Structure formats: structure tokens, C-alpha cells
Amino acid sequence: MAEGTAAASRLRLAGLCFFLQLLTIVLFAAFVRYGPESGPGLCSPQSNCSRRDPEPGSGYARFRDAHLQALLGFGFLLAFLGRYGPGSVATSLLVVAFAVQWALLAQGLFYFSLKGKIYVGAQSMVSADFCTAAVLISSGAVLGRVNPIQMLLMTLLEVPLFACNEFILLSLMGISDSGGSLTVHTFGAYFGLMVSRALRQPRADEQEEQQDAGRQPDVFAVLGTLYLWIFWPSFASATTAQDSAEPWAVLNVYFSLAASTLAAFVLSPILYEEGTLQAAQIQDAALVGAAVMGMAGEMLLTPFGALVAGFLASHLSLLGSRFLSPILRSRLKIQDTCGVHNVHGLPGVLGTLVGTLLAGLATADAYGGRLERVFPLVAQGSRTAGGQAWWQLCALPVTLILAALGGSLTGALLGSRVLRWAPESPEAESKGPEDGRDPGASDEELGGSTLA
């Protein structure tokens, strides 16, 4: 009985993968072409053509670093449950493989289309990796309670909504968010949280989930932390000004990473009984420091400001993990498996507030020639610095509303009975009934489905 169910599950996954890949092949054949990104209508505000480094091959270097960050930095975060670690990494590869293709099509309709065709290149690939990062953040909120089919369908629905939110914020509202505090971290976190709430199961064994979460393989946490430190500054600056001036975004992210990591060693021993800091906590601190710099990274924050922002963001994340997460779980019925609310949501909101403050203080004397690149509407005189700050702040509720509505609808769809199947993880198959789980148990009895 269990073997037949597992075989049917694998066939359904294979069928969905075949259908989605065939669909993207047909759409790519009809609409996608290689073309010069310097042509008219082929630049997004996030990847402004005027910001590109004229040196040959620089576009590929930015794409390479962004892709490594999305695949490895975020990918290792999905190895969170001790029982499903390897399967989680495999699922993250599945999500990345589909999300990049789907994002090129969705974002191409808004930014990279001309005369009915979508032109792809290094800049469009960087934008697709930003979208993929948001999807991986959302995946962290539902990790261990969704199967690969549900994960693929969530990606299918989230990517177009991400592209729509990005277009509203960057093109229609004219905000500056080059590193994605709003478009990537905030949107991805709250979209995933609302999916998680819609998928809540009253009889789920939360105690078992918490025990699994505490057995994160240290090797994944260590590798993820190293990749974050190495590649995140490049990831955050992939769409910022690429000229001969000092790389503000790179330096600000590095300062924020250092301060947020140090803050984890300050507050964590006070809030938790463990004597030593775990590798996963250091990894979270690194993520927090980068998330808070997403919007403000390319602005004139100064090294002092970057250190303060990273230090505050890390404390906010730790306090949220200690006091706010239990409230979300008990009152709002949100099971946030990887803690994306504390690691991405709260720092993303804080980063938006920091960016809003800096936008209100922007002047031509302080920014010089960079004002045209960071705040083009202010430089052109069509908007005051105070007006730019107002639009930056208004973008926050817009993102939260779109993420909440989209996540709720997506979760309702994924929660339909036809999509609830729970294939056994490789570990469970090898151990058989000794692991205490009934192979024929329903999803409600299991407290969620596996990823392997």
C-alpha cells in the first residue's frame, strides 16, 4: 500500500516537471531571444543600463556571484530539518531550476520585452536570481510541511506576483531598492508566512517539528555562512552603480555583516540557555546583516551607519526569535520552520525604514553624480527628497498587502486535498517502522509532508 502510494507520488512529480519544462520550452521558443541589453526598453529600474560596468565580462561576473549566492547561500538554509536535510537541498535545486526559467519570462514581460520578444542577457539573469532568492526565502517558512509538487506550484504562482510587485515598486512608484530589502526579503518572508498559515494543520505535531529543527546539520550551516560572507556583498551590489566610484553597497554590506555577527555573540547567551553559539545562529546573523542593507546599501549610509544598522538588526532578529515567534505560533497559527520572519521579514522592514530616512536626507552635495543613479527622480527635479522618502515608505504596505493576499490564496490552493501526499524520506525508508512513523498515516497525522 505504502509502496504504491510512493510510486504514484513520484509519477505525479515527474509528470508535473515534464509539463512545466515543456511549457517553458514552448514559451522560450516563441518569445525569448538573445539580444543587446543596451537597446531601448530592455532595462529594468533595478538593473538600469546606465549602471552597468562597460568592461567586457563584468555582466557575467555579477550574474555568477548572484547565482552562487541564491543557489548555495540560500540553498543550504533549506537543509534545516535534521530528518530531511539532503532531500531539502535537492528540492532547493528543483526550485532554482524552475524559478530561474519562469522568472525570465515573468520579469521579461515588464522589463526586457521589445516588439513582442523577450531579450535575455546577464542583467535579466541577475534579476531572475533575485526573484529566485525570494522564492527560496518563502520556502523556508513551509519547509518540512510541503511536498515537491506543492513547492513547484508555489513557485509557479509566486514568481509572477513577485514580478508584479517589483514592477509596481521600482517602475510605477520609483523607489530605490537595489539589494531587495522590500522586493526580496520582505516580500519573500511574508508571502511564505501566509502560505504557512493557510497550510496550518490543527493536529500537527509541532513538538516533533521543533525537535527536527534543532538537529540542523552543522556542516550545512557552516557552509551556508561562509557562502553568505563571501558572495552576499556582490549579490547585494549586483544591480547598483558599476562605475569607477567606491562600491558603497559592497562596503556597507560588509560592515553590516560584521556588526550583526558580533551582536549575535552579545545577546544570544542572554536570551538562550546554551553556553555556546550554534553555527545556525551565526548564519542567521549574517543573513540579518545583509537583509537590512538591501535598500540602504547603495545610499550614503557611511560606515558608522552600516555598523549601527547591522547591530540593531541582529538584536531585533534575536528578540523576535525569542519572544515574537511563540506568539506567531500560538496566536496566529503560523509555523515558521526556518524563522524567515526574524531573519528576513523584520530586518527587511527595518532596512526599508533606514532607506526611507536616508532618502529624505539625500542631497546633490552629498551624493554628487551618484544622485542620478540612486534617486534619478530627485536628481531630475521631478521629486523632492521628502517626496522620495514618502514613496519609499508607502512601498512597504503595498508589498505587505500583495505578499499577504498572494500567500493566502496560494496556501489555500496548495492545501487542497488532492495535493496532500507525503512520500517517505530516504532515511525513513531505510529505517522502516523503527522511526515511529506510520507509513500509511495521513498528512494531518504526520504533521506535514516530507521534501525528499
Short recap of the structure:
The chain has 18 helices and 3 strands. It is mainly alpha-helical.
Topology, please?
Blueprint: H1 2-31, E1 32-34, H2 58-73, H3 85-110, E2 113-114, E3 117-120, H4 122-142, H5 148-172, H6 181-198, H7 206-213, H8 218-236, H9 248-271, H10 279-291, H11 302-330, H12 340-360, H13 364-367, H14 371-374, H15 376-379, H16 385-414, H17 426-431, H18 443-446
Helix pairs in contact: 1-3, 2-4, 2-8, 3-4, 3-5, 4-5, 4-6, 5-6, 5-16, 6-12, 6-16, 8-9, 8-10, 9-10, 9-11, 10-11, 10-12, 11-12, 12-16
Could you describe the 3D structure shown?
The chain has about 450 residues and is mostly helical. It has helices at about 1-30, 60-75, 85-110, 120-140, 150-170, 180-200, 205-215, 220-235, 250-270, 280-290, 300-330, 340-360, 365, 370-375, 375-380, 385-415, 425-430, 445, and strands at about 30-35, 115, 115-120. Helix content is about 65%, strand content about 0%. It has a 3-stranded mixed sheet. It starts with a helix and ends in a 6-residue tail after the last helix.
Estimated radius of gyration: 21 Å
Compute the number of strand runs: 3
- Average of the residue pLDDT scores: 79
Widest sheet, order of strands: 1-3-2
Class per helix and strand makeup: mainly alpha
What proportion of the residues is helical, as a percent range?
Answer: 55-70%
What letter string, H or E per element, gives the SSE order?
A: HEHHEEHHHHHHHHHHHHHHH
Distance between the termini: 19 Å
Major sheet summary line: 3 strands, mixed
Uncertain runs are: 37-41, 48-57, 207-216, 423-452
Query: What overall geometry do the principal axes of the alpha carbons give?
Result: globular
Counting DSSP H or I runs of 4 or more residues, the number of helices is 18
Strand content: under 5%
